[in-house]
Amino acid sequence: MVSRLGFLGVIARVFVWAFLLGLAVVVLYPLLWMVLNGFKTNAELFGDPFALPVDWSFDNYRKAWNRGVSDYLTTSVLVTVTSTAATVFVSAWAAYGLTRVDIPFNKTITALILGGLMLAPTVALVPLVKMFQAMGLYNSFWALLILYTAFRIPFTTFLIRAYMIDLPREVDEAAEMDGAGRWTAFWRITLPMCKPIITSTVLLHILFTWNEYLFAMVFTSGSGVQTLPVGLTSLMSKHGTEFPVVFAGMVIAAVPVVLLFFFGQRYIVRGLADGIGK
Amino acid sequence: MPVRAIVRRTLGLGWVVPALVLVGVFVYLPLAQNLGFSTLEWDIYSGSQEFVGLDNYSRLLDDPVFWSSFGNNLLYAVISIVFQVFGALVLAALVESVRSERWRRGLRAIYFLPSAISLTVAGLLFYFIYEPNLGPLNHLLRAVGLEQFTQAWLGQEGTAMLAVIAMSQWQGFGYSVLLFSVAIQRIPAEIHGAAAIDGVGPIGRFVHVTLPLVREMTGLMAIVTISGAFQVFNEVMVMTGGGPNNSTQVLGTWLYRSGFVRNNFGYAAAIATVLFVITLGVAMAQLWVTRRRRVEW
Prior knowledge:
The structure holds two protein chains of two kinds.
Chain A (H helix, E strand, L loop, with lengths): L6 H31 L4 H5 L12 H42 L5 H10 L9 H10 L6 H26 L3 H8 L4 H12 L1 H17 L2 H6 L8 H11 L4 H35 L1
Helix pairs in contact in A: 3-6, 3-9, 3-11, 3-12, 6-9, 7-8, 9-12, 11-12
Chain B lengths: L2 H10 L4 H21 L2 E3 L6 E3 L3 H7 L2 H33 L4 H16 L2 H12 L5 H8 L13 H29 L3 H9 L4 H12 L1 H16 L3 H6 L11 H11 L3 H27 L6
Antiparallel strand pairs in B: 1-2
Helix pairs in contact in B: 3-14, 4-8, 4-11, 5-8, 6-8, 11-14, 13-14
InterPro entries (chain B): ABC_transporter_permease (IPR051393), MetI-like (IPR000515), MetI-like_sf (IPR035906)
Family (chain B): Belongs to the binding-protein-dependent transport system permease family.
Membrane topology (chain B): Multi-pass membrane protein
């Protein structure tokens, strides 16, 4: 930069900084307030909302954990892990088929799979409920696994396909010349080359599944199959006015994804940026 | 073509069949079924189904809550465009004007934090922030002498919808800032440098360099934001459940309530069709934007 800061420039910079930092406070304070409330007693919560907890006890966390949060967390982890694996593998196969294998109706199939991106889950809600009731999968772990996988395949395939198109073809062609089958070439060569985008899609899928509410709320009701977002609302309605326990539950639900974001920021940003329109 | 080659090509379909089947059965099929369901008078408990043609749609037109829900989605879209598209673009430019790389990264990460936590957590959190007795918002107003503005933010028709939308801006703006930052970073540094040498100030550079060069991202963000505004569900369910007096119903929650609480699946399916038309229209616009040639540099 060549510009020299005059007096006005300095004033402008001060304002910009004050604004940016002020906004950071507006973002962070509610989150901090949430964490602090998880340590308060009910009486403290209804007292001065800006006060710090008197005694930093993990009681509320223990209570939240024992009143269902451990179940919700287990379900969330299970659904997240299985649907992430299912979505990413099925999407990577599809992307490989569409970019590396000579298949009939390639254009039509690409349009069909990626076209799913345009459809809102809400629109399919009523028929899906009917369908899962008929299959006997309503209110089960399977309903969430299937729905999270099916509805995220278009987006995930879109990202992996766009990445695979840009990869050099010579490498996997060479592998096939060496007598390795397609299957081997996919696992040994193409998939490892796609590691950056696979990481992005894995992280984005985890964020999505962990936070998803519409399907989780409509398709599950018992505490054995509820994920955290729905479980938190049950915790809220079941335990009436013991709000600090609810805050503790919220913190437990938020911490894993916040950590995930901090450690995988680079990949998440890349996935989001490519996903919106490469 | 020799038979062996045909067999080989067909076998290649194995790669895409799992994806096709899952998307076909669970995404496309229900969509088609929904159209059929919307022509039924359908009581899910008794199981009685009766063909009523377009009755559900004409009832929709006479339903004041349908229209107020639609209006709320529209309000959501307009406010989100202001804050999460234009506001976020200006904000991203300000963040990117910070010299220190570490601060830029830190600010982007802080702003994005609310987008990483779920809408459920964010919604519950703001339910408490707006809470008239223990909520810090009213306490803050009292502390600065604005006692007359304290109120039950989510409890009255006049403020509830705006309070929910405000939460959503808090939750979502960092996501837009992040994406606009990526777009701004892709602008070659020489262009800004050249403009600066020519004596163009920072505001002039924003208007004449940044704005035109992130036009495509701006278009895409606007489209994604509008589409999201019509799919709102989670935050409304968590914060108000559509109340008070249906004043915060949006199409998604009204669909849910019509079908699953008021037990009228045909009517819910008709609302779904309206949502389908809107979101598909918006998605077509997105396709059109991405297909156009981007700005060359």
